[in-house]
Design goal:
about 45% helix; six-stranded mixed β-sheet; about 240 residues
């Protein structure tokens, strides 16, 4: 039965692991059922958030700019924080795919086993109206003061897991054993030289400040950014 683990949660710009980005990492380290340490950090993605994400999470562009770190050191520190520990999360594969993709991009191993509290809730609490983390917290009398903020959701998930262990663990020990988390990120393809040149020309032509480092752009991100600029500002006119 899993009693020592890292419970983590991410806030992202959307649901697509290939196009969206991590904006906040939150995790708690639990040793023999007791919280011993936490990890919390913003990621500066160098571009504005959508109003929907800001409203959902309470995270603003200013928070990422003033308090956020570059993606690489955040990923490196988090991978180190998790070294030697199994993982726990609510809808765990969503967060794991984002983190595995980030780790893979920087050449870091992140092969893990884990337990998903969403799966546990579906098995052991079928009568709940839904299996969202908020519903699970309400069921177990836990007040999550900052829902949709990473470290607070990680704390809430760990609490609910511990309650399920107490309630169902003794009779179902195998259900509380971690399983391998299987995901292979797609190969990252950098933006082509042609895309970078055209994007730079567009930015200069429309007098737009470049907030996205070119070396960090993938082919798909560059294409999406070019399309968004043209849609909003128009193409470059040649005379």
């Amino acid at each position: 039965m899993l009693r020592t683990y890292i419970c983590f949660d991410l806030e992202t710009t959307g649901l697509n692991v290939e196009e969206d980005e991590i904006i906040e990492v939150g995790a708690v380290k639990v040793v023999e059922g007791r919280l011993t340490e936490q990890f919390t950090c913003f990621v500066n993605i160098h571009k504005p958030l959508s109003p929907f994400i800001t409203e959902l999470t309470g995270i603003s562009d200013g928070m990422l700019t003033k308090e956020g770190y570059e993606k690489q050191p955040v990923i490196e520190e988090f991978v180190k924080f998790c070294d030697g520990y199994e993982l726990l999360g609510h809808n765990l594969m969503f967060d794991y795919k984002f983190m595995k993709t980030g780790a893979s991009f920087y050449g870091l191993p992140f092969e893990k086993k884990g337990i998903d509290t969403l799966d546990l809730a579906r098995k052991f609490l079928p009568d709940l109206p839904n299996k969202k983390l908020g519903t699970l917290c309400e069921h177990y009398g836990y007040t999550n003061t900052n829902a949709h903020r990473a470290v607070y959701d990680a704390r809430a998930t760990a609490y609910c897991y511990e309650q399920m262990v107490k309630q169902f663990g003794a009779d179902n020990p195998k259900k509380f054993e971690p399983s391998p988390l299987l995901y292979r990120p797609k190969k990252w393809e950098p933006a082509t030289a042609k895309q970078k040149r055209y994007l730079n020309d567009l930015l200069k032509y429309h007098k737009i400040e470049n907030k996205t480092p070119m070396e960090n752009l993938s082919k798909s991100e560059a294409s999406k950014l070019i399309d968004s600029i043209i849609l909003k500002h128009g193409i470059m006119k040649r005379f």
